[in-house]
Amino acid sequence: MKKPETQFYLEILKRRVASLRLMAKELRDCRGALISMDLDATRQHISYQQGLCSEIRFLDHELGVLRRELAQAGGLEPEGMSATTFAKLFDASSAAQLRQIIDDLAQVQQRVWRLNRVYAGLLRRSRRSIHVLINVLASYMGTYSLSPRRPAWVSQRQAGM
């Protein structure tokens, strides 16, 4: 297989690993913002996470297209092709590099998966806490008025001063 095409595939795969590492960092940082109830920081983290998700989807699409092109150029059927068969399209040094990147990818995907589960659990618990607070406030709506009234004795003292 031509070295430029395989190197391009490896570069995009490395970009995907880097994007997932950034996602892991963002999930950790956003968790801290949620815990400290920093709404502005949380919004910024979520916005950045959305951008990373878009980038990862784009990279996944590009990797799929390149994988099919490489397979067809190598005379292989792209559908149902195993990773081992796909790695045979690469020269020895590129195949070794591919294995290393795939190992890194597996590790970072596992880390993002774990962090995402923790993040989702934190959001569920936060949602429950917010619902409890809303219910508490709703139960006191009839008890306390929204505009504070001054007691009669405060008005009398001010008049006598």
Short description:
The chain has 161 residues and is mainly alpha-helical. It has one domain (3-139): Methane Monooxygenase Hydroxylase, Chain G, domain 1 (Up-down Bundle). The protein has helices at 3-35, 39-73, 83-87, 92-140, 152-160.
Could you describe the 3D structure shown?
- With 161 residues, the chain is an all-alpha fold.
- It has one domain: Methane Monooxygenase Hydroxylase, Chain G, domain 1.
- Helices cover 81% and strands 0% of the residues.
- The protein has five helices and no strands.
- α1 (3-35) packs parallel to α4 (92-140).
- It is elongated and about 80 Å long.
- It starts with a helix and ends with a helix.
- The model has no long low-confidence stretch (mean pLDDT 84).
